[in-house]
Amino acid sequence: MYDAAGVRQAAGKQARILNQLLDEFLQDSHQLNTEERLKELLGHTPFQVLIGLTWGISVSILTISVL
Length: 67
Known about the structure:
- The chain is an all-alpha fold.
- The chain has one domain (2-66).
- 67% of the residues lie in helices and 0% in strands.
- It has helices at residues 2-25, 46-66.
- The longest helix is centred in the N-terminal third of the chain and has 24 residues, at 2-25.
- The radius of gyration is 19 Å and the shape is rod-shaped.
- Pfam families: DUF212.
């Protein structure tokens, strides 16, 4: 869960800042293609992590009760 919410979200923030820097430095000389930009949406929001945790626990309990 830490990786899903923390590390990947931090990497997404860094990618957003790097893309902004590239936009500023390369305004006139070179236009960036969409493929050259860094991917910014990498992690899950805290709400998505909470839903994933709830879903995982629910499926586990259901599986144990069926077996």
